[in-house]
């Protein structure tokens, strides 16, 4: 018998969560052949640019390919130095020739980000929202859809999370004023109108890269600068986007469990920037960041996830 005294409050919370999920998925199971991809396709047209690189394929990208990317496959494009296994060439934007081999340098990152815009301009007529994500991010695509559908993509939007408590100070001409920028590592979304307005500054790779170098700003800071200084578009801050830089996101288990279904992006980094307190639905070497477990808790209707939840419930409460 399961006894309350026996278990800590944390485990009790987790059990309630798992039971609710179990009840929820059982109710969904009655909808035969429920398909999560059809749920997402009647969306407000979001394109996903994922920045990655061949050396991060096994370390990071594989987990995205096992979780959220299949839900938005046809709308996802990869900005990468080299071709990647299992990713079609027409969804790959190669950067090695233009940007040099991968490095975490300012000009390499700016050059890769400049390629986001080449993709965005190319597909401007097919999408309403243009989002950048890093390869260490989980995107809760349903919530992203839901959130963006509350906003008008014909207005200029710049959406993301700021990692600093204050605006960036600036006294230099042009535009000697403080401005806010969003950390690219938490994900950034731009409306169609913003992409349209950015065209003069992002039409070629060198326009963007030269701007970064001229201002001596990293890619995300330079983007914030362009939008503030040249276009007068201010950042719409959201605290539902998260990067691996955020220290507190995973440090309070109760808060995380209460709110995670509503978060839009998640960042991951070992040793402690991941939800290490979630149950292990997969062996740890197959799911080192618990990203696959998280995905299953968010998308309980996926068949594989139903199996995992079922297995977990009946093994842990026996
Ligand atoms: C590519 O996909 C196949 C099947 O979908 C899989 O067996 C294989 O391991 C994948 N390759 C890599 C390098 O991930
Ligand atoms: C910038 O936008 C704000 C409203 O968002 C407006 O009040 C202001 O006049 C604009 N400034 C310029 C220089 O266009």
Automatic annotation (TrEMBL):
InterPro entries: Fringe-like_glycosylTrfase. It is found in: Endomembrane system; Membrane. Keywords: Glycosyltransferase, Membrane, Signal-anchor, Transferase, Transmembrane, Transmembrane helix. The chain crosses the membrane at residues 12-28. One of its GO terms (molecular function) is glycosyltransferase activity. One of its GO terms (cellular component) is membrane. Residues 42-272 form the Fringe-like glycosyltransferase domain. Its main location: membrane. It is a single-pass membrane protein; Single-pass type II membrane protein. PANTHER family: FRINGE-RELATED. Belongs to the glycosyltransferase 31 family. This is Fringe-like glycosyltransferase domain-containing protein.
């Amino acid at each position: 018998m399961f006894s309350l005294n026996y278990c800590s409050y944390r485990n009790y919370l987790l059990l309630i969560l798992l039971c609710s999920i179990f009840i929820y998925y059982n109710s969904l199971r009655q909808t035969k052949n429920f398909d999560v991809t059809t749920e997402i396709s009647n969306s407000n047209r979001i394109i996903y640019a994922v920045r990655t690189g061949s050396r991060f394929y096994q370390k990071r990208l594989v987990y995205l390919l096992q979780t959220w990317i299949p839900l938005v496959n046809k709308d996802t494009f990869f900005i990468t130095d080299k071709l990647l296994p299992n990713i079609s060439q027409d969804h790959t934007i190669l950067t090695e020739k233009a940007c040099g081999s991968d490095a975490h340098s300012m000009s390499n990152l700016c050059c890769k980000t400049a390629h986001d815009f080449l993709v965005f301009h190319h597909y401007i007529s097919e999408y309403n929202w243009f989002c950048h994500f890093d390869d260490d991010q989980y995107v809760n695509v349903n919530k992203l859809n839901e959130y963006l559908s509350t906003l008008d993509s014909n207005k200029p939007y710049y959406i993301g999370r700021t990692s600093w408590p204050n605006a960036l100070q600036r006294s230099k001409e042009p535009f000697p004023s403080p401005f806010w920028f969003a950390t690219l590592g938490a994900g950034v979304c731009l409306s169609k109108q913003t992409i349209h307005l950015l065209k003069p500054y992002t039409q070629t790779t060198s326009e963007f890269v030269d701007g970064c170098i001229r201002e001596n700003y990293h890619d995300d800071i330079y983007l914030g600068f362009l939008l503030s200084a040249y276009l007068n578009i201010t950042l719409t801050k959201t605290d539902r986007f998260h990067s691996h830089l955020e220290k507190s996101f995973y440090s309070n288990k109760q808060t995380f469990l209460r709110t995670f279904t509503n978060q839009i992006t998640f960042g991951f980094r070992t040793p402690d920037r991941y939800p290490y307190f979630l149950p292990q639905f997969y062996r740890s070497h197959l799911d080192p960041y618990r990203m696959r477990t998280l995905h299953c808790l968010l998308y309980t209707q996926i068949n594989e996830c139903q199996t995992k939840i079922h297995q977990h419930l009946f093994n842990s409460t026996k």
